[in-house]
Amino acid sequence: MALQRLRNQLLLLFVLCSIVSEISATEVCSNTILPGLKGDDGTVGLEGEVGKQGKTGPPGHQGLTGALGSRGEAGQTGKTGPAGSRGCKGDPGASGPPGVKGKPGTTCDCGRYRKVVGQMDININKLKNAIKFLKNVILGIVETDEKLYLMVREARKYQEALVNCNRRGGTLAMPKNKETNSVLTRYLNQAGLTQVFIGLQTAGDQPSMQGVYADQSPLLNYTAWAEGEQQGGAANSTCVELNSVGRWGQVACDASMFYVCEFNKAHRSHHTVTDMPTIDE
Fold first, then answer.
1. Is the pLDDT reported for residue 231 higher than 60?
2. Contact 258, 152 (CB under 8 A)
C-alpha cells in the first residue's frame, strides 16, 4: 500500500513538473505581450492646426425665397423712348367767356381795292398767255394734263439722247397708251419729221414680249408695232423709233436721229421759265 501511494505521488509530481516546464518555455520563447486592463480616459489634447481646404462639395438644395428688401434710391433718368401712337381726339372743352367788344372799324374804300385786284387779274392772265406762248411757240413744247414733251432737233445716238433728257430733268418720251402715242405722233407731224427715238428698247428677236421703257417699267398691254415688226428684227436693232403715222419700228441704237424728251409737271413745278428745256443743246 505504501509503495502504491509513493508511485501515485511521483506520477503527480512528474505531471506538475511537465506543466511547469511547458509554461516556463512558453513565457521565455514567445514575443507576444498579453494586453492589460483598459486604463482611465486621458485629458483632452490641444487644438491642432487648420488643415488644407477640401474640394467643393455638391450644391445644396435651393433655399426658400427671402423677404423683400427695402426699396432702393431712384436711379438716373434714362433716354427718352420713341413717341407713342396718337391718341383719340378728346371731347371739346367748355366755351370760354366772350371777349371784349372791339372798336368800330373804318369805312372801306372798296372801289379802289376792286380796281387794283381787277388789274392784277389782268396782269396774271397776260403773264399766263406769255408763258404759254413761250412754251408752245418759241420752245416748241407740247403740254398735256400731266406731261410736257420737248422735240430736240439734234441727231443723237439712243444712249446719248437718253442721257441728254435725264440731264434736263426728264427722260425719253414713253408712249405707254394710245393717247400718249397720238400726242407724240401729232407733235412729230407738226415738226415736219418722219421718225424720232422714243424711250423703249426690246430684245431684238421678240420686241412685243421683252420690251422695257426708259424708266425700267415693262412693256405691257399697249403696243403700236408697224406691220412685220412683231416678228423681230436684227439682233443689234434693240432701240425703237416712232414714225409719222404713229407706228413703232426697231432701229439700231448706234443710229443718230432726233428725239423727244418727256417731263413730269410735278417734278418741274419749282422751275422758272428760264429753267425750261430748249429745243437745241
1. no
2. yes
DSSP string, 49-91: ------PPPPP----PPPPP----------PPPPPPPP-PPPP
Measure the CA–CA gap between 86 and 98, rounded to whole angstroms.
32
CB neighbour list of residue 193: distance below 8 Å, 6 or more residues apart:
151, 244, 258
Q: What is the largest CA-CA distance in the chain?
A: 195
Q: Do the Cβ atoms of 152 and 279 come closer than 8 Å? A: yes
- Residue 133's SS3 state is helix
The structure's pTM equals 0.48
Q: In the prediction, which pLDDT does 274 show?
A: 35
Alpha carbon distance 61, 7 (integer Å): 88
Query: Across-strand partners of 171?
Result: 262
Compute φ and ψ for 261, nearest 5 degrees: -95, 150
- Distance separating alpha carbons of residues 239 and 252, to the nearest angstrom: 6
**Pairwise pLDDT comparison (44 vs 260), residue with the higher score:** 260
Residue 132's pLDDT is 58
Q: CA 280 to CA 164: how far, in whole Å?
A: 11
Give burial (CB, 10 Å; 0-12/13-18/19+) of 267. exposed
- Grid cell digits, residue 99: 371777349
Q: Which of 39-43, 157-161, 180-184 has the lowest mean pLDDT?
A: 39-43
Rg (CA), the chain: 60
Measured in whole angstroms, how far is the alpha carbon of residue 202 from the centre of its chain?
Answer: 33
